[in-house]
Amino acid sequence: QQPVQSPQAVILREGEDAVINCSSSKALYSVHWYRQKHGEAPVFLMILLKGGEQKGHEKISASFNEKKQQSSLYLTASQLSYSGTYFCGTHPRSNYKLTFGKGTLLTVNP
Amino acid sequence: NAGVTQTPKFQVLKTGQSMTLQCAQDMNHEYMSWYRQDPGMGLRLIHYSVGAGITDQGEVPNGYNVSRSTTEDFPLRLLSAAPSQTSVYFCASSPDANYGYTFGSGTRLTVV
């Protein structure tokens, strides 16, 4: 069962912040975040393994609430290069399957 | 380091034909997976493997077979191609459950 991402799309101006949410109905071992630019393969951003732990990558960070089975990706002071589709992937505790949400299209305009 | 290599990059098949999409990685990763990507559907898991000789089904396995005889290779076989299998296929690998996946550049498959 795919995790649910929200919003489906967001448009920002350079320098603005955004939050992308991901939720699952299953108990999770980890949450992954990836970014995909048009016509390219997804690129790994970060993995969150423990409840409440935040990880960072450039000005992009994320949190993972293990009890609620939710994760959020925070993009601060967005840059043009942040444009793309962001996918969360969830890895349940019960097996080794990594399944992805339908993605959030982020557009950063000058 | 080549990473994850997928071949071919593009392929056109006729309905009913069979073919194998190749995936090879040179990073000694145990975990490998196949995904298909269709507009508005995200990445859907077809089959995955956690080591040589071990495979399991994902969300959309029908019409596809896999095998994992070596750590490096994880081919995806389409048994009898159908237009519904028109998609972009990605292979991905990871050392284990504590790390992210590295994706190949994809195979764009069209079934006519």
| Through-space gap between termini of chain A | 37 Å
Secondary-structure content class of chain A: mainly beta
Q: Note the total helix count of chain A.
A: 0
**CA-based gyration radius of chain A:** 13 Å
Largest beta-sheet characterization of chain B: 7 strands, mixed
Question: Tally the helices of chain B: what do you get?
Answer: 0
- Report the C-alpha radius of gyration of chain B, rounded: 13 Å
Helix/strand structural class of chain B: mainly beta
Quaternary structure classification: heterodimer
Name the poorly predicted regions of chain B: none
Shape of chain B: globular
Encode the helix/strand succession of chain A as letters. Answer: EEEEEEEEEEE
Count of β-strands of chain B: 11
The total of beta strands of chain A comes to 11
Q: What global shape of chain A is seen?
A: globular
Strand content range of chain B: over 45%
Can you walk me through this structure?
- The complex is a heterodimer of chains A (110) and B (112).
- Chain A has 110 residues and is mainly beta.
- Chain A has no helices and eleven strands.
- In chain A, the strands form two sheets. In chain A, strands 2, 4, 5, 9, 10 and 11 form a six-stranded mixed beta sheet that branches. In chain A, strands 1-3-8-7-6 form a five-stranded antiparallel beta sheet, with no helix packed on it.
- In chain A, a hairpin with a 2-residue loop joins strand 6 and strand 7.
- Chain A starts with a strand and ends with a strand.
- The model of chain A has no long low-confidence stretch (mean pLDDT 91).
- With 112 residues, chain B is an all-beta fold.
- Helices cover 0% and strands 52% of the residues of chain B.
- Chain B contains no helices and eleven strands.
- In chain B, strands 2, 4, 5, 6, 9, 10 and 11 form a seven-stranded mixed beta sheet that branches. In chain B, strands 1-3-8-7 form a four-stranded antiparallel beta sheet, with no helix packed on it.
- In chain B, strand 9 and strand 10 form a beta hairpin.
- The model of chain B has no long low-confidence stretch (mean pLDDT 96).
- The interface between A and B is medium-sized, with 26 and 26 residues.
